[in-house]
Design the sequence.
């Protein structure tokens, strides 16, 4: 376990899985929402999330002790067993939906204290608001608006399709016939966009949505 698994910050939303096969990795990646799962190859950095899916209690304990001993201080989700106080046990049988919800809750908590620059606004998820960096004007967000912007911000400028938003923001299953996303996007635009082109950072592209994130040198 001496070799590092790669350089990932908390913003990269990296998930590493320890399991006897790649079934869980494939299942997670089929439902990926701004994150990517891979088999653990070494010691990840503290920004990663590790999921342990091993049958034998001794194997689970040994792996946790090895990673902690190697300096990994990040969160671990232990399937089928309790772990150390800093780890998160999940009882078996494990439903994929419940595990995905746990993953999303982890990233939401980790990222709620980040500040994203969206056009002329600083998006502060923890305070559920947008703040105009020049005028100081504050725009309050509903919880769904906060979740929607946070999920799009996590995509780091990439387009996100309607089905992903329905699944990860609203919890709807695939194939649901609803205009929920379109309606919330429209309402959000009415709240935050003006005639000033600088305020138009919520982009629609052929049924997909993305945020125009400011580069670090543009922030502020």
Sequence:
């Amino acid at each position: 376990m001496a070799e590092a698994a790669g350089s990932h910050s908390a913003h990269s939303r990296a998930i590493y899985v320890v399991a006897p096969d790649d079934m869980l990795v494939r299942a997670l990646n089929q439902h990926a929402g701004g994150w990517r799962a891979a088999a653990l190859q070494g010691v990840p950095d503290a920004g990663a999330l590790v999921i342990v899916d091993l049958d034998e209690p001794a194997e689970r304990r040994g792996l946790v002790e090895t990673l902690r001993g190697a300096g990994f201080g990040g969160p671990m989700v232990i399937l089928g067993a309790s772990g150390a106080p800093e780890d998160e046990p999940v009882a078996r049988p494990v439903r994929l939906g419940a595990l995905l919800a746990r993953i999303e809750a982890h990233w939401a908590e980790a990222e709620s204290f980040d500040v994203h620059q969206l056009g002329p606004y600083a998006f502060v998820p923890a305070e559920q608001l947008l703040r105009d960096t020049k005028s100081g004007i504050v725009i309050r967000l509903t919880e769904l608006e906060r979740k929607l912007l946070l999920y799009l911000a996590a995509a780091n400028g990439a387009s996100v399709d309607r089905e992903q938003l329905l699944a990860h923001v609203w919890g709807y299953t695939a194939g649901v016939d609803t205009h929920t996303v379109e309606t919330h996007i429209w309402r959000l635009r009415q709240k935050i966009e003006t005639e000033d082109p600088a305020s138009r950072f919520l982009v629609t592209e052929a049924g997909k949505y993305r945020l125009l994130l400011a580069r670090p040198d543009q922030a502020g």
Summary: The chain has two domains: 10-110, 114-211. Residues 1-11, 215-220 have pLDDT under 50 and may be disordered. The helical segments are 23-30, 57-69, 96-111, 143-154, 162-170, 180-192.
